[in-house]
Each structure stands twice: as C-alpha cells, then as structure tokens.
Design brief:
six-stranded mixed beta sheet; 2 domains; nine-stranded mixed beta sheet; 20% strand; single chain; alpha/beta; UDP-N-acetylmuramoyl-L-alanine:D-glutamate ligase; globular; Protein-Tyrosine Phosphatase, Chain A
C-alpha cells in the first residue's frame, strides 16, 4: 500500500505538470450523490461518444488519486500487474517531459472524496475551469463526523475554482445554494425551482412493454425562454433528470450548442448501470436497479421515484433496501429514516437486507407499515429468492443498497434477461464476480 501511495504521488506530479502546460478544459463534478450519472450526461452532451471526439470523461467511477490519472492517461486499473504499472508510469513520464500530448482537449472528471482534504487535493491536481456541484447529504460520515463537515469538503468543487471559472449548481439543494450564493464566479443553476437557469418543469415515466429498452422518462426542460422535450430511454428518477439538466447547463458554460447537446443526450444517455436503470423483470414486472451505492439522500430519492411509478392493474410496489454503509454515528438514525420513508410513501412490501436490516424494518413498522409486509435478510441472495417467490405480474421492484451489500445480485435474480447482466448491471466483471 505504501508503494502504491508513492506511485500515486508520482502520477499526480506528472498529471499536474501536463495539465499546466497544455491547459485542457477540465469540467469537475462533485457532490454527495449523482456524480457518476452527471459525469456521464455531461460527457455525452459535450460529444464524448462521437467518433474522433476530443472530449474524454472518467471511466467507471475513477474519481480518486489513482482513478483521475488513469482517466487522463487512458488506462485501466493496473491492480497487481507490474507490466500495467510500468506502462502507466511510462505514459506519465512522457507527458511530464512534454514528449507526448494529452489525449483530449476537454476532460469531464468525477472527483470523489472519502476523507477530509481529498477533494481539495484533486482540485489542485486538475484545476477545473467548470465546477458542477450536485448535492450535499450524509455520506462517509464515519470519516467526516457530520453532514456539515461533508458539505465543507464537497464545496471545494466551487470554492477552489479560478475567478474566471463557471459554477453549475443544484438550485433545489438549500445547502448547495447557500455555498454558491456569494462566490464571485459566473453561475448557472439547474433544478425544479422557478429561478433555475435550466429548469426541470415536468418528468413523466414512459413504459413500453413491446420494446422495454425504449422505456424511460419524458422530460420538459425550460431554458433561455423556451420549453424543450427530451425522451431519455433506459433510466428514470430525479437524479437522472438532474443529470440531464446539469449537462445542458454545462453545454452553455463551455459554449456548446444546447440543441446539439440535447440531441446527444437523447441518442446516447441511457443512464449508468446501477443508477436507477429501468429493466424488465420476470413475470412481466419492472425493476428499478439502483444498486451501485446508497446514502440517506439517495435512498429517499429512490423511494420517492418508486412511489411515483405508475402501476398497472393489480401491481404492487416492492422496495428491496440494503444497508447504507460508512455512516458512523448517523447509521441507526439513517436506517430508521429509510424504513419510515418506505412506509410513508405507501410501499406495499419492504425487504430489508444487511446487518442493519432490522433497524430499517423497525423504522417502517413504527411508521405504520404492517408487520406482515416487512421482511429482513442478512444477505442479498436470500432476499432475491424471497422476492422472486412473492412478486407477481405488474409489480415494480426497487433494488438499492451500498456496494458492500451486493444488491445487484437481487437484480440478476429477478431480471427477465440475466444473460445481459454483464452489459446492464454493476459489478459483473470477473474480479467482482469472484468475490
């Protein structure tokens, strides 16, 4: 581990020098939730999916001291391969010496944090000109101690921008709005608030039984005095809608034609695996696969999206909710809240999974959910088999939890086409499958 830390410092030095010399446009994205989906939407809107594009976006969730250099140099995780490490270091050395050029003129980078100081260090490494701030909420509070400390850390994405930079921020998040209010940089806001520069006016779920992959959400978005409609296939939910709005704002920030950006989003943005993807399930059901990770803010959003999902005939709304990890002293309160939210949203059946499943269940029962509609399981495979037996035609199942709970195993158990798991689900590469 100490050797890797030393190598990461060498990579950081090389990246920093190359970026200072070539001055590419860097769009940085940070926040408690929605970073990866926003990164994907922004990258697509700016043209990253088009042949010959000079725009590169972070692969997967490469958002830390190693992941960011991997994105800059276009290489996969080296893991324990000496050959891959040597190749990466050679690329870094050439860029440091100016013997090779960076592979893009625009980088769209997800910037993550686990502990205080992480984000400021990454900001100093890549010096974004555009900073996108998605939200502030409880995440990694085991290491930060409080939501306020999380907010202080995440706000580096806008506080540390250069004076001539552009801030793109979520107008609906009060904490984010207050952080951005008095900063001197140019600002572009997005959200449902009428004062948003890019305003989400309406969001409707569209189901297509004949062609399930064409299901998704129809958005009405207002900006610059006009209302535009976008059909986003493959995903639903407020975080995804926010991501689309942030991408349109980013197009404006970098001088990109917004009509072109919207066409790209409609053509290429189908959500990110494990982030509120809508998938056909067995027995003519629908699955809402939100299994990449979880936190209190994200769980509440997912439960609301499940509650708004249109039911057909005798359909039920089922929530499979796994533990939310790394919350420290906020863990019990957060899991009680998760259960309470499911009950208050009118969810028909709750299946809680993990070591804190009993706390989620207690929160639901205390909030009025009948005890015979609440079930707990220590591990996700058992929960998946249970739901398979209980689910019926027209049901919709939300599956959500932190990475360590492996809730994607439930999705695979319930999806109509498990042969597409490697394409559609998170953590289905050989390394994860072996764990």
């Amino acid at each position: 581990m100490q050797i890797q830390k030393m190598l990461e410092k060498i990579l950081a030095l090389c990246v920093k020098r190359a970026i200072r010399r070539e001055k590419p446009l860097v769009v940085g994205i940070a926040g408690s939730v929605g970073k990866t989906s926003t990164k994907d939407a922004v990258g697509i809107a700016l043209g990253a999916k088009e042949k010959g594009s000079s725009v590169v976006m972070s692969e997967k969730n490469f958002n830390n001291d190693l992941g960011v250099p991997l994105t800059i140099y276009g290489q996969d995780m080296p893991k324990k391969s000496i050959a891959k490490w040597l190749k990466l270091l050679l690329k870094a050395k050439f860029s440091y010496l100016g013997l090779s050029k960076l592979r893009a003129r625009t980088f769209v980078l997800e910037l993550g944090t686990d502990r205080p100081g992480d984000l400021a260090r990454l900001m100093g490494l890549v010096t974004p000109k555009v900073g996108i701030f998605t939200a502030i909420g409880a995440e990694h509070t085991e290491f930060f101690g409080s939501v306020e400390a999380v907010g202080d850390e995440e706000s580096a994405i806008v506080r540390l921008l250069p004076p001539d930079g552009t801030i793109i921020f979520n107008q609906d998040d009060l904490r984010v709005r207050e952080v951005c209010r008095d900063l001197p940089q140019k600002k572009i806001s997005f959200g449902t608030d009428p004062l948003s520069d890019v305003r989400l006016i309406e969001k409707n779920i569209v189901l297509n039984d004949a062609v399930p992959d064409a299901s998704g959400m129809l958005l009405k978005i207002g900006f610059e005095g006009r209302v535009h409609e976008l059909m986003i296939e493959g995903t639903i939910g407020m975080p995804q809608a926010y991501s689309v709005c942030a991408a349109i704002a980013a197009a404006k920030a970098v001088g990109q034609d917004q009509a072109t950006a919207m066409n790209r989003l409609q053509g290429y943005f189908h959500g990110t695996p494990g982030r509120m993807r809508i998938l056909p399930g067995i027995k003519r059901t629908w699955l809402l696969d939100d299994t990449y990770n979880s936190s209190p803010l994200a769980a509440l959003s997912a439960i609301r999206d499940l509650a708004s999902f249109p039911l057909e005939h005798t359909g039920k709304r089922i929530a499979a909710l796994g533990d939310m990890l790394e919350l420290g002293s906020l863990a019990e309160e957060s899991h009680l809240m998760q259960g309470k939210a499911a009950a208050e949203a009118g969810i028909d059946l709750l299946v809680a999974c993990g070591t804190l499943a009993h706390v989620t269940a207690r929160g639901a029962i205390e909030a009025g959910m009948p005890e015979d509609k609440v079930f707990t399981f220590p591990k996700s495979p058992e929960a998946g088999l249970f739901i398979q037996e209980r689910m019926a035609q027209y049901d919709v199942v939300l599956i959500k939890g932190s990475q360590g709970i492996r809730m994607e195993k439930i999705t695979k158990e319930l999806m109509a086409h498990p042969d597409r798991a490697a394409e559609l689900l998170v953590r289905h590469d050989p390394d994860w499958l072996s764990r």
